[in-house]
């Protein structure tokens, strides 16, 4: 038995389980707070409140959820690709400036089947992380668009205004305001860790250089 399998399952998957739990708790908080906020808006317009289940089908919930997921997946997809070609001197988030300093560590054991298949399968697998993020971004973008459009239809209906077409919403300012306000914040957070990891340390974190590493050291 190797050292990894000797640990309980919750230790082997602790990081993923913790992040999943935080995500679920945050999503529940969003649902409860969003439900209350949307019913307050409806009450202001003299409309009856929606049940929690009915709220989950509204554009208010769908738009708010997927506009955030969209920006997260865009950020991670772009970050995966940008770190292939670009470097940042001294950052723990960058590959070394000198290719000779790079060392690819591979544990003993069989490689994934597509990693050695050759042809298009090996190409796809070699780029599968970025591909997955951009597919998730595209799906979230479309879900955000549909939810944001339905939310605008609900708001227009409450104010007695006529509905608008999906294309008109897509080309309007509100949808892109929702997108860009999230995109800029995501790339700002990535910029922060890229730059701060040059000068600051976190003991035992793989996102940090060793505590005693000089500022000029690039990569972990």
TrEMBL record:
Matches recorded under Pfam families: DUF6766
Key words of the record: Membrane, Transmembrane, Transmembrane helix
Top-level taxon in the UniProt lineage: Bacteria
Residues spanning the membrane: 15-38, 123-143, 183-200
InterPro entries in the cross-refs: DUF6766
Name of the protein described by the UniProt record: Transmembrane protein
């Amino acid at each position: 038995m190797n050292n990894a399998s000797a640990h309980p399952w919750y230790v082997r998957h602790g990081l993923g389980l913790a992040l999943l739990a935080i995500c679920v708790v945050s999503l529940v908080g969003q649902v409860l707070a969003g439900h209350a906020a949307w019913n307050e808006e409806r009450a202001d317009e003299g409309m009856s409140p929606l049940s929690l289940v009915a709220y989950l089908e509204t554009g208010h919930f769908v738009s708010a959820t997927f506009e955030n997921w969209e920006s997260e997946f865009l950020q991670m997809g772009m970050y995966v690709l940008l770190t292939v070609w670009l470097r940042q001197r001294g950052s723990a988030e960058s590959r070394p400036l000198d290719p000779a300093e790079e060392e690819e560590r591979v544990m003993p054991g069989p490689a994934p089947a597509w990693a050695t298949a050759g042809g298009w399968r090996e190409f796809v697998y070699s780029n599968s992380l970025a591909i997955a993020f951009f597919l998730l971004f595209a799906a979230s973008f479309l879900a955000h668009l549909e939810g944001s459009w339905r939310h605008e239809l609900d708001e227009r209906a409450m104010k007695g205004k006529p509905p608008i077409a999906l294309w008109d919403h897509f080309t309007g300012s509100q949808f892109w305001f929702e997108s860009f306000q999230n995109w800029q914040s995501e790339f700002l957070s990535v910029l922060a860790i890229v730059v701060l990891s040059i000068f600051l340390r976190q003991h035992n974190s793989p996102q940090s250089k060793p505590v005693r590493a000089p500022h000029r050291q690039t990569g972990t």
